[in-house]
Design brief:
Elements: H1 11-61, E1 65-66, E2 96-97, E3 101-109, E4 112-120, E5 151-157, E6 162-165, E7 181-188, E8 195-197, E9 213-220, E10 228-235, E11 241-243
Antiparallel strand pairs: 1-2, 3-4, 3-7, 4-5, 6-9, 7-8, 9-10, 10-11
C-alpha cells in the first residue's frame, strides 16, 4: 500500500510563523513611532530656530511696524487711534515705525511651553497697563496689539511630550528653570542686531559681560524611545544661534 503524505503546517510551525509576524509588526510600529517622534522634534527645533533668525533679520532690516505707541514722536499712530495729534497730516493710514527691538520670548506655564516672536514697543505714557522696552507682555494675540502690549508676530506652542529648557533669571541652564512658570526673552536691536535679554547675565550693555551667552533648548521625554535634546547658545555680539555639544540626555532640564 502506498503511504499517504499530508500537506499543511504543524501547530509548532504555525506558532513560529505567528511569532515572527508579530515580532516584525511590533518592530515596524515602533519604527514608525520613532520616526514620527523624530520628525516632531526636528520640526519643533527648526520652528524655534527660524523664529530666532527671523527676529534677527527683522532687526537688521529695520523692518517697520504699525506705530501704535508713537515711537517716532511724529504725533501719528494707527489709523484707528484716537490719540493722533494735529501734527499727523494723514489720519487715514497707519503710521509706521521701526520698533525698539525684535524679540523672542520663551515661556513655560504649567505644562504648556510657548515661543513668541514679537516687536518690542516703547512705553506709552498714560496708558495702563504700560509696555516697557526690554520687557515682554504676552497678552496680545498674533498680529495684534492692545493697550500698550507688544505686537505679536508669531506664536508657537510645543506639542505634547516636548519641553523648553528655559534659563533661570541669572542665565543659568545647569539646571534650567524648574518652576511652574518660567520666562526668558532675547532682544535684537535694530540695525546691528546686537542682543540683550531680561536675564541678569546679559543685560543691555555695550561691553562684553562675563557670561555673554543666551542659552536655551528643547527636550523630548518619551518612555518608548530614546530621550532627545538640543541646546543652543547665542553670543551677544554675533547674535547667531549655535548648537551646544556634550549634552547629557539623562538630565533633560539642563544645557548642556
Amino acid at each position: 500500500m502506498q503511504k499517504q503524505t499530508r500537506s499543511g503546517f504543524t501547530l509548532v510551525e504555525l506558532i513560529i510563523v505567528v511569532t515572527i509576524t508579530l515580532f516584525l509588526l511590533v518592530a515596524t510600529v515602533q519604527g514608525f513611532a520613532n520616526s514620527a517622534s523624530q520628525f516632531s522634534f526636528s520640526n519643533a527645533d527648526e520652528t524655534i530656530q527660524s523664529m530666532i533668525q527671523q527676529a534677527r533679520s527683522l532687526a537688521i532690516s529695520g523692518k517697520a511696524q504699525i506705530d501704535y505707541t508713537d515711537f517716532d514722536k511724529d504725533g501719528c499712530r494707527d489709523k484707528n487711534s484716537m490719540l493722533d495729534t494735529n501734527q499727523c497730516a494723514d489720519k487715514s493710514v497707519d503710521d509706521l515705525a521701526t520698533p525698539a527691538h525684535y524679540g523672542v520670548n520663551f515661556q513655560k506655564s504649567g505644562s504648556t511651553y510657548i515661543v513668541t516672536l514679537f516687536a518690542d514697543n516703547h512705553e506709552v505714557s498714560g496708558q495702563q497697563p504700560k509696555e516697557n522696552v526690554f520687557d515682554y507682555e504676552p497678552n496680545a494675540g498674533v498680529t495684534a496689539y492692545e493697550n500698550g502690549w507688544d505686537i505679536v508676530l508669531d506664536r508657537y506652542t510645543l506639542p505634547p511630550g516636548m519641553q523648553l529648557i528655559i534659563p533661570q533669571p541669572d542665565g543659568t541652564t545647569v539646571p534650567a528653570c524648574s518652576a511652574a512658570n518660567c520666562s526668558a526673552t532675547i532682544f535684537f536691536s535694530p540695525v546691528f542686531a546686537d542682543i540683550s535679554s531680561d536675564l541678569t547675565n546679559l543685560p543691555p550693555t555695550t561691553t562684553e559681560p562675563s557670561d555673554p551667552f543666551f542659552r536655551f533648548g528643547i527636550a523630548q521625554n518619551n518612555p518608548n524611545i530614546n530621550n532627545r535634546k538640543r541646546c543652543s547658545e547665542i553670543h551677544f555680539l554675533a547674535g547667531i544661534s549655535e548648537p551646544m555639544s556634550n549634552l547629557n540626555l539623562a538630565q533633560l532640564n539642563s544645557c548642556p
